[in-house]
Specification:
By secondary structure, the chain is an alpha/beta fold. The protein has a single domain, classed as Diaminopimelate Epimerase, Chain A, domain 1, CATH 3.10.310.50. It contains six helices and four strands; from the N terminus they run ααβαββαααβ. Strands 3-2-1-4 form a four-stranded mixed β-sheet, sandwiched between helices. A hairpin with a 4-residue loop joins strand 2 and strand 3. It is globular, with a radius of gyration of 14 Å.
């Protein structure tokens, strides 16, 4: 694995991000994941979809998985929501989440950008996919790396 990926976040920052995922998922039945790799090797949107499928994030009951993809060397990120989300929201749905993250990233606050983006995503998703008493955690909350 690339050392840039390993050095991107400290162990404490990774724990805080995982805690943010848990907090966000307390508001919504949506499932959030973060994937970090050195670069997107081409089109970042296509790579994000590839990772989404590799992580089998399309296998949620409501098709409401969300992947936040980070390409460290490229200094780029993308947010991809599954079909269940895209059928319910407008094209600009992720803009407020992206803006929050980008503002933190520009200041070099990568962990805080991810945390605030995850919390915002959970809040936004809760309007369309509220958490139910019967909700189960369908996807791992761990940060995947490539």
């Amino acid at each position: 694995m690339n050392s840039k990926v390993e050095q991107f976040l400290t162990a404490k920052e990774e724990k805080n991000i995982i805690d943010a995922i848990r907090t966000a998922e307390e508001l919504t039945s949506g499932e959030l994941r973060v994937h970090i790799e050195s670069n997107s090797t081409g089109n970042i949107d296509a790579r994000t979809i590839d990772v989404f499928e590799t992580l089998q994030m399309h296998q949620t009951a409501e098709r409401n998985g969300v992947l936040i993809y980070i390409a460290v060397i490229d200094k780029a990120f993308a947010i991809y929501g599954d079909d269940g989300i895209n059928r319910k929201v407008d094209l600009n749905f992720w803009n407020s989440t992206k803006d929050i993250m980008q503002n933190h990233f520009k200041a070099g606050q990568f962990a805080e950008g991810l945390i605030q983006g995850i919390l915002k995503a959970g809040q936004e998703l809760s309007r369309f996919f509220p958490r139910l008493d019967s909700d189960v955690n369908e996807l791992s909350n761990t940060i995947s790396k490539g």
